[in-house]
User: What shape does this take?
Amino acid sequence: MDKTQRGKLILKTVPAGEVEKKVVMLLLKFSKGASADTLTEKIRNTPYELSNDIEAQKAVMFIEAFQKCGATAVFIPHVTAKPTVEKFTPVKKQPDFSFGSPSTDKAAPPPIRVKPEKNGVRRLTMTLVIILLLLSFGYLTWQLWPILGVKIQELVAHLKQLF
Assistant: This one.
């Protein structure tokens, strides 16, 4: 599993004027399909969340670039919740010295397996493949009907002669 820390990158303050223009130019380099006007409007309404899921190393590079321009940005790491640990007190088990079959009074129940949710993509793919096969078979039959029709008529006539 990936061990890199991820989090949010938030643009805190951007002074108006030349700094604002520098920040907009910097963001235009990295944003896809954004215009200068929309970025300027978003920057004026700080704090502005630039990324919801960014690696810490990339966020540090962006923060340094914003500091060079004169703006301030903050990286907030995602908090991973640790599972709660239940207290477990071990119970001493008395040794069983009987020579008979082992007791099955307290047999442990089998573990419960949870089936993963089906997303339906496989079912949809199979349905589309079957539809395409049926359409292909129909098209092939339509194209070969002059040949197949004669053969079917001959087969029917032959079967009528047998009965």
